[in-house]
Amino acid sequence: MADLIEMRGIEKIFPGVHALKNVDFELRSGEVHALMGENGAGKSTLMKILSGVYAKDGGTIRVGGNEVTIDGPRAAQALGISIIHQELSLMNDLSVAQNIFIGREPRLRFGRLDEAALNRRADEIFAAMNLHLDPRTKVERLTIAKQQMVEIAKALSFRSRVLIMDEPTAALNDAEIEELFVIIRRLKSEGVGIIYISHKMDELKRIADRVTVMRDGETVGTVPAASTPIGQIISMMVGRSLSDEAAVIPDLSAAPVAFEVKGLRRGREIRDVSFSVKKGEILGFAGLMGAGRTEVARAIFGADPIEAGEIFINGNRCHIRAPADAVAAGIGYLSEDRKHFGLAVGMDVRANIVMASLDRFTNRAGQLDEKGMRGEAAKYISLLGIRTPSDRQEVRLLSGGNQQKVVVAKWLLRDCEILIFDEPTRGIDVGAKAEIHKLLQSLAAQGRAVIVISSELPEVLRLSHRIAVMCEGRLTGILPGGGKTTQEEIMHLATLRESAMEPVGEPA
Amino acid sequence: AQDKMYIPLISKGFQHQFWQAVKTGADKAAAELGVEVTFEGPDNESMVDRQIDMLAAALAKHPSAIGFAALDSQAAIPLLKQAQEQKIPVIAFDSGVDSDIPLATAATDNVAAAALAADKMAELIGGKGQVAVVVHDQTSRTGIDRRDGFVNRIKEKYPDIEIVTVQYGGGDQLQSTELTKSILQGNPDLAGIFGANEGSAVGVINGVREMGKKDVVVIGYDSGAAQKQAIRDGLMAGAITQNPVGIGYETVKAAVAAAKGEKVEKNIDTGFFWYDKTNIDDPKIAAVLYD
Amino acid sequence: MSTTAETSRAKSGFSLGAGAYQKLLAFASLVLLLIGFSLASPNFMQTANIIAILQATAVNGVLAVGVTLVIITGGIDLSVGTLMTFCAVITGVVLTYWGLPLPLGIVAAIGTGALCGLTSGFFVAKMKIPPFIATLGMMLMLKGLSLVISGTKPIYFNDTPGFTEISRGSLIGAVLPSLPLPNGVLILFLTAFAASYILERTVLGRYTFALGSNEESVRLSGVNVDAWKMGIYALSGGICGIAGLLIASRLNSAQPALGQGYELEAIAAVVIGGTSLSGGRGTILGTLIGALIMAVLTNGLRILSVAQEWQTVVTGAIIIMAVYADMMRRRKMG
Amino acid sequence: MSTTAETSRAKSGFSLGAGAYQKLLAFASLVLLLIGFSLASPNFMQTANIIAILQATAVNGVLAVGVTLVIITGGIDLSVGTLMTFCAVITGVVLTYWGLPLPLGIVAAIGTGALCGLTSGFFVAKMKIPPFIATLGMMLMLKGLSLVISGTKPIYFNDTPGFTEISRGSLIGAVLPSLPLPNGVLILFLTAFAASYILERTVLGRYTFALGSNEESVRLSGVNVDAWKMGIYALSGGICGIAGLLIASRLNSAQPALGQGYELEAIAAVVIGGTSLSGGRGTILGTLIGALIMAVLTNGLRILSVAQEWQTVVTGAIIIMAVYADMMRRRKMG
Ligand SMILES: Nc1ncnc2c1ncn2[C@@H]1O[C@H](COP(=O)(O)OP(=O)(O)OP(=O)(O)O)[C@@H](O)[C@H]1O
Ligand SMILES: Nc1ncnc2c1ncn2[C@@H]1O[C@H](COP(=O)(O)OP(=O)(O)OP(=O)(O)O)[C@@H](O)[C@H]1O
Ligand SMILES: [Mg+2]
Ligand SMILES: [Mg+2]
């Protein structure tokens, strides 16, 4: 059978970055072809060329055996290629259904819109995805995860021959990932070719047929997914092998409580949440999408208002009304939504890294210490392996994973006593993820209190000294970390609806 | 205040010194005659429809009489008819209204006044040479009348004088200053400049001063502290002044008379005067000048 | 779920009459102003004055409706005022200089407006010139051309009987003598209704919001963004043409020097009406209310015989307060 | 690698002198205009005229520098023109009515400007009123207050010897008689240099860019966003105070009616200079060039004695072309 897509010798050069060097890639119909590689390896760039977002600087593309020129998104759509972009690009002010069918609205005569048909069709797609979402909801009201689901629905609505998924699961929880895989399998059986990009190694075995690995803008090789050990794929990606150690839980019985929250509430989103973190402890937060973990973190940080609740730092009551108060009190919060809340993407890497710590680089006259900032930026660029031509590169030009590393660097540099990381490793490659885990552990070892919110259960299990689980705005229980807790126990608490409300584990 | 007669004056402008002088005259008459007067005008003389809105609001207050300086006579006719129906007498001021509704008009003949400026210019530059004109507005009645009055007189009577350019500075002193400097730069042999209202005239003085051109004859229009000073200092040869205080005063006086049903004179010519270094302190002239 | 759906429907707010509760609240600042002025002066709340206010709103209102469309795309249009004048002048040329019949004059005004709008749209969409500059340039060009074409003097419409009826006559008054609403006001409402319909119910409207929301994402969806954008600017220009007709008819003349400064007032009405200058959200109803707030304010202060310099001060303060009250209300409503 | 680094450093563009290549290119439209006018008229390229052009740039240039700061934060300031006038009037009150010494007048002008800017900033940052409305309200209030305070008449500075020297005198000319640059121009350059320094080298400047880039992310970095924003508006207001001094000194009087319309010209200079109205990027150097382009254009067309109505048309067209050329250049450079 002829390849559905055949890309040969693809070249792409950005100012200062040779992003793709003679890259080959092919896709058969009815296969899931995973594209792997470190942050900045060139995966998204290759896919943007295939979907008509970027023009290639060299090489050929064949679709169904015929050489084609793809000069725009419309051309790609005409060839039956659709894409879920890594960076969400939805229209916030429009409804979900309006977003999905933008450019293809069902119309009545005289250019009038058939809104009813629009919503009906969106409903049909959601039903097929087993997703409960009102098509009339405005996108800006959705969480990142739901927005991701909308992007997926939009791509599905094209009924394409080729579907590119650039990190579709980065924002998703296990339950949604499972739904997505059901859809992928169905599409596969219908003969659709799927290109799948992810940094979650476990997904490879579950869904991929073949794996192509890229490194530094070059193809390293293509291997069958089933018969190749994960370790080998990782070493193809990072050029070395990684060891995967479980968390060693220190004895914290003597450690003082660094941070305590009592009776935090706001409407239906946060319902009487209380917990504490000791110095040197990593408290993991698990829960399904919409459980309210982000809400709790933002409320603590003063980013959103609260109705009731007290916050204690080292035993002293703290009044936090704005993020500035929180940071002054020694709390740092890394947001799950880097594009909107984490980065000024139009500014350079250096400026973003120092954004939360500018007072440290300012003299009495308000003058900035450019040299000092350059030094710190350089330190974190090498520490986290941020792939960027220089620390003056605008952040929007970095790959998704490297942008995430910049946010991480920002909070590492700020050096807070209490650190809240919301999905810190979203979109970060395996190698760097291990680095970040090590960093978090060393922060805790230095006596900091660390809270990690993660939708990846393995990450929660690997990092946490204790695991808090939330469901529908309530803290349903706190479980011990390390090897003592299983995924099933967490899932039980994460789905403990109000009817069965009775906190388990240690009293909150 | 209920029994007090109320007379709104809708003028062509408000912030400029000329209009403030008209307002002074109106207020003076109001105090003497024991009536209440309000004075309003749009920001600039192109805002015909804004003036109509002002007139409409004034009519809604059921005044005893109205004073009106029309930016465009025709545009106001429906409202003037409405005033006529409601038996509200209308007195025109500053320039006439092309209609027989106004019972009286208190105005200056701008064309004749500008022609006098042209005569003085010709006299001062010796009947030949290049002159330029800086006007405040290209489309308003006063702008057109003063420009045409000046330009036509030169064309008719002084064939050896060339008008090299007519430019419009919106009556803004700074803009008129820059404009004058460019004119002087572009026409190095210029003999004289006529500034057609206070802002233009002051701008011309500033421009001439900044360019250091001592031999350019400057003729202005209206008065104001800066122009008076310039005439005393010899920077400005002289200027035409109207009698804005008189215009305001006569308008209110006529309006009160008309409201009482008395007969009023149809044309109240408040006159215009040439003033220069020699007569600026003459009590008759000083009375019509304002700061 | 149903709550969300309802809220979002109310927000999108089509149809000038429906969706009672939230709509009524949106009027709050306006209603407060009306009550205040009524109490302060018996001359305010009278049919003749209310009609005067509405008529004062007509031209600015129509311009504001036009510019709302452009602002929702995330653009701005500084040329609306001078474009209005330019259309009036062209109508004057067609009707008075060439002596053609009235319908052709109307077509000329709207056609000229649409064409100029299309040109601005071309500058913005195809030449990628920032809307501020493109329409600033357009504003200056049209300002100059109006003077050139008219010979810097007003063109009167005395030879076109019935021309003044466009704005001053009253079709409604002919049927209902107790409601002598001038046609100009009727035209404002019809224009607003049509624009609202287009915005909420047609593809063009959908792309208007989409462009303002996230232009790049619309482009990535394969939509011919440039063409639609030009269409929106053309529509907005056509609406300015209507404003040109209204003002020419009201003044029975095309005044070539008029128009500059009107863009600021129109944009102010739009923003007071809750449309965001960063695009993606806005309603025509809001714009109408914004325009009315400004007209009521100006008229009311005049009726109270407030000194002119204080009128300006008070207007500035009330605009800030009205918008602040509106922000508070919306924040409370979630 | 090094190319990108260089480009981005050049983009940030501090220091009016350095970074030669790209800076020179940014002048392209300006240089083209200068060459064109020089060829067209021998009277254009003369010391006196160049100085006249620079002097004509001074007031608008200073205002544009001030408004650049606000625009980079993603805001807008419509009140700059009337604020300038208000500051001039206050200076008049201090110097002429109260008879206080000159330095106090200068402090009063800049202080008043900063205070009014702070107030606008308060409306925007604390009351969350959209900058367009907040500064529109401010514009109207200041316009009215200038008239009220001055009693609707100009305040002259005849009793303050040396006041006119602020703008008209020439410190440089006293040292270098061949370069009689008026102090007004010198003040423009100093203001621009200081603003540029603040923007590129200080925390305030860093936050100016950051706010325009992504205000929410700055807030979530624990920065007291509101305070910094108010600071930026205050700084911008203080700069308008300098403009007030310049214009008062130039006219030897505070003209209370002047100022409206200046905001559009200032914003135009900023946008022509490449600063984006959506915030996050911009340079003072660009603004200076934008202001110069406008001044050269106006002056040149007048020198050529182009009829005024055509001047307007040509100005509009050239502004569009200049910005288009600039866009092309930048796109080519990547
Ligand atoms: N528009 C651009 N301009 C300049 N450089 C770019 C641009 N887009 C991408 N790059 C650079 O190209 C390289 C490849 O980026 P790409 O987004 O393809 O990486 P990726 O493999 O998708 O990484 P990730 O896993 O982090 O998403 C990176 O070094 C990135 O900085
Ligand atoms: N802008 C919003 N408007 C209304 N409801 C919202 C909004 N944002 C979030 N919610 C609701 O708040 C609740 C918690 O949201 P959120 O998804 O952020 O929690 P989370 O536990 O952090 O989940 P995630 O795993 O996605 O990070 C959900 O019920 C969600 O629907
Ligand atoms: Mg990527
Ligand atoms: Mg979350």
TrEMBL record, chain A:
It is found in: Cell membrane. This is Monosaccharide ABC transporter ATP-binding protein, CUT2 family. Gene3D superfamilies: P-loop containing nucleotide triphosphate hydrolases (3.40.50.300). Pfam families: ABC_tran. Its main location: membrane. It comes from the Bacteria. It comes from Consotaella salsifontis. It is a peripheral membrane protein. GO terms for cellular component: plasma membrane. Keywords: ATP-binding, Cell membrane, Membrane, Nucleotide-binding, Repeat, Sugar transport, Translocase, Transport. SMART domains: AAA (SM00382). Residues 5-241, 252-497 form the ABC transporter domain. Belongs to the ABC transporter superfamily.
From TrEMBL, chains C, D:
GO terms for molecular function: transmembrane transporter activity. This is Monosaccharide ABC transporter membrane protein, CUT2 family. Signal peptide: none annotated. Keywords: Cell membrane, Membrane, Transmembrane, Transmembrane helix. InterPro entries: ABC_transp_permease. Its main location: membrane. It is a multi-pass membrane protein. It is found in: Cell membrane. GO terms for cellular component: plasma membrane. The chain crosses the membrane at residues 50-71, 78-98, 104-125, 132-151, 171-199, 284-304.
